[in-house]
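USER:
Before I trust my own judgement here, I would like a peer's view. Write it directly below this note and I will take it from there.

ASSISTANT:
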Amino acid sequence: MSRSNHRPFFPYIALVGVLNCCSMGYLAAAETASSTKLPELGSVASPSEQFRIAERYIKGVGVESNPELGMQWLRLAAAQQYPKALYELAFHYEHGIDTKQDTNKAINLYKQAASLGYMDSSI
């Protein structure tokens, strides 16, 4: 084998180092820090985006956990008949998570989600 056909091993080692940094969370931490600024309540028209913002606040993903604000975003998305938001809101009411337990509201919301084709709501 001639030396001119031999590829240096160093680039592969560098690539492994970068991949290890990613898996160790170094880049994920930088991404999280840059994504902490979310839109103001009501400034986003898309119910699917409202739902994603609600989840982030409720679960504290990329932002400080704020279930009260997350529930406001969730109610906003549900008011626009977003099936996944209706289902999640129903679940919260059913179990009294981040809101007062209300079985009647939960049932009505589950029915709305099911009528819009959300299969998890089917009885």
